[in-house]
């Protein structure tokens, strides 16, 4: 007797005792499963392999610079290729500072858009809102950079000057809102904020859409207004996912190259003054790589390695934050 | 006695439009609604011109809800038609009937939860102490503070046990000490002893039955007058179900409870009055509209129903 399919098994109600073969299943169907598992595993391994390859080859290329500078590659901020000095701290600082500004600016806006599109907008407006946000994500970063350098930087300079004039001398506020350069950490942060808003919005929106209606009803059922419902049901439920979205946005901001290179001002300095020019790792690489050679080139690749490591650290910490939220809300 | 109530209810004249504004102000603005606050004055009101209103109030000192000619639509589809019933203070009123008969839909009219469904539309009146909950001036948020709801599946917020209970008092601006409110609500819901040492732990770690009692505690923390329960035990095992049923009996002295259940034995065990709903097929569209068949004391519904359809249902011949 040939092996039976499940349908036939149900219809004929054949007992396994009659002929054990009914429970043995079909070898060809099992082969499909094995094949699928193999392909999926292969795809997963390819990613790891490529990652390892990139890490290994860039580290190898960067090795001469690392060897020459030692720890001062990441602790010194003196970067003078003509004298053979490669201290990347100012660039690491610039990358982190401009990305943090971007996140601080983008998160409230993104959450606002996501909540509006999911909770508050009239039904016929929801699709257009989402559509426009997705369009924003499709604009190439060089376009953002050009817009930043041609339109934003000159237009925002008077604003910086005004703020600087108003609070530049005030303690605490003056530490940050100081300087008058159109191309600055702040301008880079603003451009980055615009660039990462779509990704944070779209991921948050998807997370928010998964909040069970039972949660919303629970809050409404107790006499919550819409905002109280969002605070009690929507935000706690999607906290982990929104954190993940923010971290992805942060990762994207740190890796962004050309737009930042155009507007950050290309000056290696560590300062709390947000309206002064700075530089970031990715921007330095793209600005200097073309005319570099020898140890300079190796130092630039070293910047890439550091950027890679910082990005991984951010991602790992993002995951652990998400996991902690999830564990807590599951009651463990 | 309940039979009398029922017959008197059905002989009532419908209220005229003008007594809605009159009745609207006092009950909705007072913080809670003590049982005695309305009856004596209105019952003693003399004038014959307001006969309809006096009749309504005099016959119903304990009536919390009076539903008149209620129809609910989803878009063009009529989900439930012509529901007339009254809900009495400190009683448990059960809605039973086969799937799709509209019992949950009707329950959700008592706290305007149907508002959350965009296509839903309600005709007729749901009078809460004489105030039509569907009057355009009524704020559903205020309605839901006074009329709490417990849902089919336990739905605690993914927060701590404490924060789950404290949410309602916080948003309604309670002046009381939150710790006391939380303890009182948990004690009333017979959950305090089980959770008092883990108030800061997530509510998601509780068992299903505990979660549902937490949801009841959460609902009573805002001190509503009425608790609506939409199949509160359908996701629970028999032991957890028995605990919830015991709890309902205890809560009855302080709250008025409406429960939708698909479990006839549950209705028979816990309720004082029972409404039996069924569906009828609309011949032209092949859709089903729910309707109230019979509303009476639970004893009558289960032992001597006056409608044949009720008898068939409660004896298990149908549904």
Automatic annotation (TrEMBL), chain A:
Domain ABC transmembrane type-1 stretches: 92-318
Annotated GO MF terms: phosphate transmembrane transporter activity
Coiled coil: none
Keywords carried by this UniProt record: Cell membrane, Membrane, Phosphate transport, Transmembrane, Transmembrane helix, Transport
Membrane topology qualifier: Multi-pass membrane protein
GO BP terms, alphabetized: phosphate ion transport
Subcellular location: Cell membrane
InterPro entries per record: MetI-like, MetI-like_sf, Phosphate_PstC, Phosphate_Transport_Permease
Stretches that traverse the bilayer: 35-56, 91-117, 129-153, 184-203, 299-322
GO CC terms in record: plasma membrane
Main location (coarse class): membrane
Family per record: Belongs to the binding-protein-dependent transport system permease family. CysTW subfamily.
Family matches, as PANTHER family: PHOSPHATE TRANSPORT SYSTEM PERMEASE PROTEIN PST (PTHR30425), PHOSPHATE TRANSPORT SYSTEM PERMEASE PROTEIN PSTC (PTHR30425:SF1)
Protein known as: Unannotated protein
From TrEMBL, chain B:
InterPro entries: AAA+_ATPase, ABC_transporter-like_ATP-bd, ABC_transporter-like_CS, P-loop_NTPase, PstB-like
Domain ABC transporter as annotated: residue spans: 65-304
Tagged with keyword Ribosomal protein: no
GO terms, molecular function: ATP binding; ATP hydrolysis activity; phosphate transmembrane transporter activity
Matches recorded under Gene3D superfamilies: P-loop containing nucleotide triphosphate hydrolases
GO CC terms of this entry: membrane
Keyword Membrane attached: no
Residues forming coiled coils: none
CDD domains for this protein: ABC_PstB_phosphate_transporter (cd03260)
PROSITE patterns with a match to the protein in the record: ABC_TRANSPORTER_1, ABC_TRANSPORTER_2
Region described as Disordered: spans on this chain: 1-39
Keyword annotations of the record: ATP-binding, Nucleotide-binding, Transport
GO BP terms: phosphate ion transmembrane transport
Name of protein: Unannotated protein
Native organism: freshwater metagenome
Lineage: unclassified sequences, metagenomes, ecological metagenomes
């Amino acid at each position: 007797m040939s092996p039976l399919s499940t349908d036939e098994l149900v219809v004929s109600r054949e007992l396994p005792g009659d002929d054990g073969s009914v429970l043995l299943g079909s070898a060809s169907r099992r082969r499909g499963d094995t094949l699928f598992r193999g392909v999926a595993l292969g795809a997963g391994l390819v990613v790891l392999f490529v990652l390892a390859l990139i890490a290994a080859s860039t580290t190898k290329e960067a090795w001469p610079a690392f060897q020459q500078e030692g720890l001062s590659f990441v602790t010194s901020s003196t970067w003078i290729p003509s004298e053979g000095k490669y201290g990347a701290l100012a660039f690491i600082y610039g990358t982190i500072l401009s990305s943090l500004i971007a996140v601080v600016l983008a998160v409230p806006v993104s959450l606002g858009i996501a909540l509006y599109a999911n909770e508050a907008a009239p039904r016929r407006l929801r699709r257009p809102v989402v559509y426009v946000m997705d369009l924003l994500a499709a604009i190439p970063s060089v376009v953002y950079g050009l817009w930043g350098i041609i339109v934003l930087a000159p237009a925002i300079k008077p604003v910086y000057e005004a703020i600087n004039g108003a609070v530049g001398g005030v303690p605490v506020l003056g530490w940050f809102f100081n300087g008058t350069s159109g191309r600055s950490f702040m301008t880079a942060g603003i451009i980055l904020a615009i660039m990462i808003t779509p990704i944070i919005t779209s991921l948050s929106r998807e997370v928010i859409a998964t909040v069970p209606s039972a949660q919303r009803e629970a809050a409404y059922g107790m006499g919550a207004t819409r905002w109280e419902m969002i605070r009690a049901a929507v935000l706690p439920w999607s906290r982990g996912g929104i954190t993940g979205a923010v971290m992805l946005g942060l990762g994207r901001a740190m890796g962004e190259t050309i737009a930042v290179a155009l507007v950050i001002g290309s000056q290696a300095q560590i300062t709390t003054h947000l309206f002064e020019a700075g530089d970031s790792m990715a921007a330095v690489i793209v600005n200097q790589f073309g005319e570099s050679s020898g140890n300079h080139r190796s130092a630039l690749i070293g910047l890439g390695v550091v950027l890679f490591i910082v990005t991984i650290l951010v991602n790992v910490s993002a995951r652990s934050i998400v996991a902690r939220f999830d564990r807590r809300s599951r009651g463990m | 006695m309940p039979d009398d109530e029922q017959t008197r209810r059905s002989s009532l004249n419908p209220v005229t439009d003008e007594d809605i504004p009159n009745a609207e102000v006092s009950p909705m603005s007072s913080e809670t609604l003590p049982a005695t606050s309305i009856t004596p004055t209105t019952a003693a009101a003399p004038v014959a011109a307001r006969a309809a209103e006096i009749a309504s109030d005099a016959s119903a000192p304990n009536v919390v809800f009076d539903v008149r000619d209620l129809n609910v639509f989803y878009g063009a589809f009529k989900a439930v038609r012509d529901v007339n019933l009254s809900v009495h203070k400190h009683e448990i009123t059960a809605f039973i009937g086969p799937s799709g008969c509209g019992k949950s839909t009707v329950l959700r009219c008592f706290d305007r939860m149907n508002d959350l469904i965009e296509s839903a539309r309600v005709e007729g009146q749901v009078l809460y102490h004489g105030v039509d909950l569907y009057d355009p001036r009524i704020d559903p948020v205020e309605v839901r503070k006074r009329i709490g709801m417990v849902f089919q599946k336990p739905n605690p917020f993914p927060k701590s046990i404490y924060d789950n209970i404290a949410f309602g008092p916080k948003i309604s601006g309670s002046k009381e000490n939150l710790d006391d409110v939380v303890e009182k609500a948990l004690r009333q819901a017979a959950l305090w002893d089980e959770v008092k040492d883990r108030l800061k732990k997530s509510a998601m770690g509780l068992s299903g039955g505990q979660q549902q009692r937490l949801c009841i505690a959460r609902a009573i923390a805002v001190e509503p007058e009425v608790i609506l329960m939409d199949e509160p035990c359908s996701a629970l095992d028999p032991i957890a179900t028995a605990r919830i049923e015991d709890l309902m009996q205890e809560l009855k002295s302080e709250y008025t409870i409406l429960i939708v259940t698909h479990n006839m034995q549950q209705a028979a065990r816990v309720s004082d009055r029972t409404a039996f709903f069924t569906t009828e097929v609309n011949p032209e569209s092949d859709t089903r509209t729910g309707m109230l068949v019979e509303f009476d004391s639970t004893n009558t519904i289960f032992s001597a129903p006056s409608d044949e359809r009720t008898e068939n249902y409660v004896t298990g011949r149908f549904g």
